[in-house]
Amino acid sequence: MSGIELAALVEFMTGDAPPGRDDDPRRGPVARRTLSAELAFVQNELCPRRAPVALRAGGFALQAALSPPSEMPGIEGRGGVWLALTIDGHPARIGLNWGQIRRLTGLPLESADPAEAALLMEEALTGVLDDLEHQTGLALRFTTLAQAPEAEPLLALQLRAEVSGPATPLRLNLPLLLSAGAGRALAEALRPQQRAHAQPLGLMLRVAVEVETMRLSLAELRGLRPGDALVLPDLPLAARLVVENQQTAPVQPVGEGPFPPIWALTAGLTPRAARLAPDAPAYRAPAMGSTARHLQDNSVTDHPSDTPATPENTQRPEPQAPATVSESESLDALEMRLSFRLGETLMTLAELRRAGPGTIVTLDRPDGALVEILANGQLIGTGEVIAVAGQRAVEIRSLFGES
């Protein structure tokens, strides 16, 4: 072994550089990440093989998983800040950028005082934090925002999370720094989740109940306004369970009220694409309110003899110019599949594999909650269930953007 290699080995083992070798261009930098015995124990407690933790908090569905990062996470120089917080009184840090903060809270806090910004974030997320504290037993407090974490020994982890709500799901990949006390408290809170999802590689999927089979043309969809009411079809025939927009099964309500939170499957799950064939029958519901829509039934004969005979025309018809249809008129006639999402919940992959006729699904939907209006699976607004002339209908409360 050469002297240079021996010097590098000594530096790696002891952490001290031999004297007189600092300016040697042939010596490569050697570094290692050290972890105290206490922090190593906490990391083993927090990062076993477990399914993502799934919670419902503040009207959102949360899925999160912890893993050790390949290297020390850093956010400096990338427009990010560290949110300082306490977990049961023990310090911790989460790295966020300003765009993520704005999406989570809806507040522009870039110019606010760091301590005031943390307080405003805590107030904006009060509903989520209260539910998390109730379900985990932890006390969570935000203290300040900082450009760099403090120099105290902290355990570096990677927090991967997905937040699902009325808008597009928000996927986060954040650096998380925990003190030993915060890590122990978090590990204790997650231990019941580890027992609940003991199967390897467990997966939680979003499950919703939707009322589908309603078709509107693009022109009719553009004509919808808040205050219009759309009559719903017969629920036992039209309500369906939808799993991640991939699988579907018919369901019927179980319990009291027009839209109870408990539903029962009447058949097994099938791929959703199989039900979207172009020749599939579609229910077109009339709208009541500012614009009324009426459908006319076309008469259909079942036997050739029922069709009245027409005299043959022996004269050659004069050629006519082909009809021209503008591009806008062609798009206005495009049919859109309108559906109403009544509520959501989370189910494990094992539960969905066992699902079949008679399986009960309970939605996380409080009484009186608004339903979501979707066009071709995309959220376009919200509505309230009402009764009109003895029929159930959805009165449009809000529409998002322009159709």
TrEMBL record:
- InterPro entries associated with the record: FliN-like_C, FliN_T3SS_HrcQb, SpoA-like_sf
Q: What is the native source organism of this protein?
A: Paracoccus aminophilus JCM 7686
GO MF, any single term: cytoskeletal motor activity
Region Disordered, residue ranges: 286-330
Report the family membership.
Answer: Belongs to the FliN/MopA/SpaO family.
Write the lineage as a comma-separated list. Answer: Bacteria, Pseudomonadati, Pseudomonadota, Alphaproteobacteria, Rhodobacterales
Show the GO cellular component annotation of the record. Answer: bacterial-type flagellum basal body
This protein is called Type III secretion apparatus, subunit RhcQ
**Residue stretches spanning the membrane:** none
Name all Flagellar motor switch protein FliN-like C-terminal domain ranges: 330-398
User: Per the record, where are the segments of Polar residues compositional bias?
Assistant: 297-328
BP-aspect Gene Ontology terms: bacterial-type flagellum-dependent swarming motility; positive chemotaxis
